[in-house]
Amino acid sequence: MKKLSRGRELISANGVVLGARLERNIKGEKKIGNWSWFDNPFVGTRELSGLKVMMALMNNWDLLERNNSIYEVRGVEYRYVVSDLGSTFGKTGNEYGRSKGDLEDYIKSKFIERIGSHYLDFALHTRPIFFLIVNVLYYQEHARME
Question: So where are the chain's domains?
């Protein structure tokens, strides 16, 4: 790694970077909007189902539309990206029970809720605490993720 002018205190003696945040910045690519898990060109495809499985296995509990970006590449191609994976590898739950980046919580997580002959329900509990229903838009947006 090249010598940094700032952030040196975040790098341990063995070269591990702690508390890093990464931002997508690809030349020729421009963010043009966000996409919804429920309304996008891939609804019903194996690829979108695979992405949902991956999000469940990473315990990503922040599946809001604003965390999914659409990028236009040189005016000829569109890329649909899950652009925020910061709320992963912990445990799912409401505002007081979830975690992120917590290996112990992740290891203890239950991933599969139910198995049927043609379906699999993942244990992704993200519904807000009931008293937050007073903020109707917040409650609906977050309850829909579950």
Answer: 20-145
